[in-house]
Amino acid sequence: MTSAESQSDSPPLAAEWPFPVAAALGSAVRATGIEREIRARLPWGLRNCLAVASGCIALRMPDGEAAEFAAARAIVATALEGIAALPVLPGEVEDILTISARERLKWTRDGRLRSAGTRTVKLRGRAKAVTFHVFDPRHVEDVLDRDLPTIWREEDAAAIRENRKRAAGKAARTRAGEGKAVAGTERRAPSQAVRPRLQGWEAFETEGLLR
């Protein structure tokens, strides 16, 4: 057996870890984000050596690259240790909470969905960098467990109804005020009309009877 045949028969270097299902918070979008985060921490040439399938993260490299394999394995292990605290991205929080982008923006602005800070990235195909809010996974989990989006939607619907009621009342008062103004003008009109001049009034004044 030649040395080349011996190397080809040697088992590849491999390491496996269970996928952190709890960190994904039941979201396939979040799970994909976790995979991308772990892969992004590896050197460019080793990223294709990482695979995620069937709830397992696997790192496999050819025999003879022991040093690179050891470094890559340490990177993956370190990433998994802190993966539960990985900030939740906008698309992930929408998928986890089953909310729309409009709801996410509204609830972030009014503080109900608390931001954990911002992240700025340069997206492919865009000239300018994009800045967006990220969220603490523990806060997102709490919002999910308490079903707060349902409560917030009810609050928003009640606020819309109240605003419409106030607007209708204001419009009614405005119309009533305009109606009173028109009626007042009509009542004052006769007193403001030109009085008819009596015949012979000039002679009456000439005689001086009013002096």
Task: Give a structural overview.
By secondary structure, the chain is mostly helical. It contains nine helices and five strands. It has helices spanning 3-9, 21-24, 28-40, 66-81, 90-97, 101-109, 137-145, 148-188, 201-206; strands at residues 13-18, 50-53, 56-61, 118-121, 130-133. The strands form two sheets. The chain has a three-stranded antiparallel sheet with strand order 1-3-2, covered by helices on one side. Strands 4-5 form a two-stranded antiparallel ribbon. Strand 4 (118-121) and strand 5 form a beta hairpin. Helix 3 (28-40) runs antiparallel to helix 5. Residues 163-197 are annotated as: Disordered.
Helical proportion, percent range:
40-55%
Order of helices and strands: HEHHEEHHHEEHHH
Characterize the main sheet: 3 strands, antiparallel
Radius of gyration: 39 Å
Provide the low-confidence segments as ranges: 1-8
Total strand segments: 5
Strand content: 5-15%
Shape: elongated
Distance between the termini: 149 Å
Number of alpha- plus pi-helical segments:
9
User: Average pLDDT, to the nearest integer?
Assistant: 85
Give the spatial strand order of the biggest sheet.
1-3-2
Class of secondary structure makeup: mainly alpha
SSE layout:
Blueprint: H1 3-9, E1 13-18, H2 21-24, H3 28-40, E2 50-53, E3 56-61, H4 66-81, H5 90-97, H6 101-109, E4 118-121, E5 130-133, H7 137-145, H8 148-188, H9 201-206
Antiparallel strand pairs: 1-3, 2-3, 4-5
